[in-house]
Amino acid sequence: ILKVFENIKDMDKGVEFVIESDKIASLSDIPAWCHFTGNQLIKSERIDGIYRFQVKKMADKGKVTVIGEY
């Protein structure tokens, strides 16, 4: 999640990106992160043991929004 944060903070609002992971924990971690930060999870799938999440950044460039609670 920290790597995702570092890589998207300078992206423009509305940019779509893909997160890939081979960790089963990503099935809960990525959707929870999207909810917590206000980013939009568009699609998730598993292909050949790799979990892929298509996400749309919803915060302005250089900003990260935190809206949810754990």
Beta percentage is 25-35%
Rg to the nearest angstrom?
A: 12 Å
Shape: globular
Largest beta sheet: what is the strand line-up? Answer: 1-3-2
Order of helices and strands: HEHEE
Which regions contain 5 or more consecutive residues with pLDDT less than 50? Answer: none
Q: Describe the sheet with the most strands.
A: 3 strands, antiparallel
**Strand tally, please?**
3
Gap between N and C termini, in Å? 15 Å
Average of the residue pLDDT scores: 87
Class based on secondary structure composition and strand pairing:
alpha+beta
Question: Short description, anyone?
Answer:
With 70 residues, the chain is an alpha+beta fold. It contains 2 helices and 3 strands.
How would you portray this structure in words?
- 27% of the residues lie in helices and 30% in strands.
- By secondary structure, the protein is of the alpha+beta class.
- The longest helix is centred in the middle third of the chain and has 12 residues, at 26-37.
- It starts with a helix and ends in a 14-residue tail after the last strand.
Describe the structure using short key phrases.
globular, alpha+beta, single chain, 30% strand, 70 residues, 27% helix
